[in-house]
Amino acid sequence: MPFISNTDEQRQQMLKEIGVEKFSDLLVHIPSKFIQKHHIDMDEPLSELELSRKVAKLASKNIADANSFLGGGIYDHFIPAAVDHIILKPEFHTAYTPYQAEVSQGTLQYIYEYQTLICELTGMDISNAGMYDGATASAEAILMAVRKTKKNKAIIAGTLNPKYLAVIKAYTEGIGVKLEIIDNKDGVVDLEALKATVDNDTACVLVQTPNFLGNLEDMFAIEEITHSSKKALLIVAVDPISLQLLNSPKEYKADIVLGEGQALGNAMNFGGPLFGFLATTSKLTRSIPGRIVGATLDADGNRAYTLTLQAREQHIRRAKATSNICSNDALCGLAATVYMSLMGKDGLHQVAEYSATKAHYLAEEISKIDGFELAFEQPFFKEFAIKTPVSPAEIINKLEAKKIFPGIDLARFGHENLLLIAVTEKKSKEEMDELVSALMEVTND
Amino acid sequence: MTKTIFEKHTAGRKGFSLPKNDVTTSNGIPAKFARKKTPFIPELSELDVLRHYTELGDKNHCIEKGFYPLGSCTMKYNPKINETLVRNAAFNNLHPYQNPDSAQGALEIMYDLQNDLAQLSGFAGVTLQPVAGAHGEFAGLKVMRAYHQSKGNEKNEIILPDSAHGTNPASVTLAGYKVVEIKSNEKGMVDIEDLRAATNEKTAGFMLTNPNTLGIFESSFEEIAKIIHEVDGLMYMDGANFNALLGRVKPGEIGFDIMHYNLHKTFGTPHGGGGPGSGPIGVNEKLLKFLPIPMVNKNETEYFFDYSHEETSIGHLHTFFGNFAINFRAYLYIKMLGAKGLERVSENAIINANYIMRKLEDYYYIPHEEGCMHEFVASGKWQKDKYGVSTLDIAKRILDKGFHAPTVYFPLIVKEAMMIEPTETESKETLDEFIAAMIEIAKEAEENPEILHNSPLNTPIRRVDDTLAVRELNVRFPIEN
Asked: Could you tell me which CATH class the domain B345-467 is placed in?
């Protein structure tokens, strides 16, 4: 069903009023050899019922109800049912980018609220309306720093999410940005190496905390090293949930803060859609990529919202825009806004506190198993790396049969025999104990 | 005016429930790393939150409320079944790091969609990784770059017409190329002589929207492709307007080398107030090896993530595999329509646009009226010249009549432009209502221009002061704590 309203009769009538006999007369501008002579070879169309059956069949080929400890940037936090009810409202779901402010105040106001919440979480002065994901937000933050400082060296912590690094490489290749990766030492940035690398050509230092291995970076020390170079900007990638417990980036004087926002009310969806948040200090306002909503007044003097500082953007500035971004992942930002509004101060704090305490419980229990130990002696938040006596790949395969996903095998990221385990508030003690028993069995096999 | 969510806060109110914490371990955060000042997060009940966002929603225009003829954006109605099916927990609980053998249903969808999109456009392969149109453009330009590097071509210029979407030149810059803009001719098409003059050995490629942003198919397309291919440049198609070609023209078979699709425009995903969308790109045979990693592939027993072209690939452009849940919707849409249904999409989109154009041509200046594809550009020039009424005034008055406004002041090559795209899902009755309103507005411009200057009058708010928004920048609600 192509969801078309007009009947054959109406189509005929319309063609007549247009002044042509048949539809193909409207295609005379297309060279006829370009037009397909036959129907394109595709599956026969399915009815709604057939489609639902097909999806049910496909669904049975997935395992999505495992006792999972997967993280690595995407986390299974609890999502209140009301979130989905709000984002499905057609007024949000079937509207376009709010270019006509007078009939888009709903979208504009929630983005303003979103920006405020991101500013509260990060301690920054200004947030944009969102980016595609954490990876592209980190690439855009580096480009922002390069533009602002007119320096071309970007220093990146080797403990950054490797997927982010891969995207940064793709975004900065061929445009004269020099990337310097700092090795990790005991699971955190090697501060001595960082000190030796920061110089007057440095545009920025990008560090993630908690880092990809789960460890907390010493942001105060990193800030001091970064800002020892007069112009260099400190960019930090953060887990928004962690900001309930961990220092706000303002406390360690970060210049640009970004992160993956999925954990705030968005399902994992096999890794997309996600959304990136990006916030900064008022000094950097005009270098920000993407949309920004501002409060203003309407002709009657009432409070109103509108897209602002548009002179930075592609539809105005074209080749000189701060970014090419147009559509972002707005609805995911709405989910985050609604999620935070529902959870409130206490709810968000509990999510962070429970995730952290449970992660520490599990880390302690796993460390008690012979052959398993925490890979690093570093403080962590909700994710930690474990050294395993047998290869993580083997553990993962064996546990999958029991519908347990024990974590991410870090071998593919250059860390042999390390398993990265993430815990959220959703994990019960029972589920964690199940993992511990299963790990014990693996080593006893 | 609706108070912000922050002004509705009542200390101690709760809108959530979580199970009790069943461990007693400490959170392990050393004092040094502990946050000093807690963020202000408002406290509301679930009902408070629902009322708040319902009230905000009421202030939005949306497709389900009414006609949304926003040119270039393809604001069609999208099937509800998509929303139900993508919410199946067996898909939306999938984690990107789980073993692909436990996500075979998802991989099958991705594999099938790659093929369906390739089949519809005549390309050899499609990556689903880019998550928006502009992201797709960037991916396409990176592929171009990789191609030229592999051949040792020293090229640094991309040519595009002055009618291009703003994202095109912005993506060119982001990809490290220089923009060479050429003028469109009086018919709104690429000026072949201008193109010839601009093309040289430095030309890496040409970006073209086809049908172009005036809604016209570039009929001298063959010549354009020949000029670009003669210097080993590549032809990039901005697929924002692919809705016009569905089932009829395969860009990959008529000389384009790369194209991005806007799945959120063409294939069954509502725009969500600004995304999430999806912007896959299709490429021809010689460019396959440059596509982002991973692709989804299939052997005798299973679907898998294919990294085999890692050496030549442009790498990763997204944290994972793109917007899976949006790609899923496109898959469902294509399966439900089939080839014939997709042909009917383009047929009805084209008829609807031509119908409005013919009905308005006596009332508004139509600069290129020889027949359009799925959209057309009208101009408020007559109203501006005769009555001092601008296209902005007209657009705001359209809001008063219960419709969304067309895209205005774009493309830049038409003065006082109004780009109108009705889409295939709208009925003749709706189009007639819109046409009647537009004619009424043309009369108002003549008889009572004041009403247009003052419009909108019936919307939730009156015209906003954009200058004030920049001058007194206020981008976050002030919270004192």
From this structure: alpha beta
